[in-house]
Amino acid sequence: MGEGLIVRREGSKTESGSQIYTTRGTYYFTVPNGVTVITAVITGGGGGGGRGAAGYYATGGGGGGGGGSFIGTIPVIPGEVLSVVVGNGGIGGVLNSEHGSSGGRSSVKTSYFANGGGGGRGNGSWYSEDEPGYGGTGGTSSPSNFGGVGSKGETTLRSDGGAGGIGGTGGTIGRGGNGGIGATTGGNPSNGNDGMDGRVIIMW
């Protein structure tokens, strides 16, 4: 869903404002009259956390990686219609599909983007720890940032899963999902948590 704010500068025929997209999906933004450059803040979706393992010294699932980010200016033409994509958060690991999935790429005009974070791994044991998901890469030009890396699942009885990585910008936006909790033999480990959706902010 997009939320907009438009402010007219005193003595100017050009309106300034912003449009925020926070729900996964594809949108279209029409460049206002008189605007030839926009600033975009793009964050990819966070990766899903891995499912915890069951058994002796079972580990928690690895946390998902945070979505990458892009912050920069984009040349545009008044009246131009720009495609805007908000990347989905990755799905947490579940039984028989223990690894979390990667988050989705967010973009403006396709060529300006931020990739999603990697999914955390699941179903580890004391001799094979669950690896975390890695942060998504940044956009096509400077400045861009990598998302935070998820934590490994701990190798202790009923251990907590590793925390998800935090996205390159925006606090909890694009955050990776926490890993699931491990369980003793015969117990039921928890599933990994889903990553958070990305976000796109357009300002002019």
Short structural summary:
The protein is mainly beta and 204 residues long.
Give your account of this protein's structure.
The chain has 204 residues and is mostly beta strands. The chain is built from no helices and ten strands. It has strands at residues 2-8, 15-21, 25-30, 37-43, 69-75, 81-86, 106-108, 112-114, 144-145, 199-203. The strands form two sheets. The protein has a six-stranded antiparallel beta sheet, with no helix packed on it. A hairpin with a 6-residue loop joins β1 and β2. The chain is elongated and about 70 Å long. The relative contact order is 0.30. The mean pLDDT is 80.
Protein structure class: mainly beta
Q: Flag low-confidence runs.
A: none
Estimated radius of gyration: 20 Å
Counted by DSSP, the helix tally is: 0
> Going across the major beta sheet, what is the strand order?
1-2-10-4-5-9
Query: For the residues shown, what is the average pLDDT?
Result: 80
Proportion of helical residues: under 10%
Distance between the first and last residues' Cα: 19 Å
Main β sheet profile = 6 strands, antiparallel
The proportion of residues in beta strands is 25-35%
Broad shape: elongated
Topology pattern, helix = H, strand = E = EEEEEEEEEE
Number of strands: 10
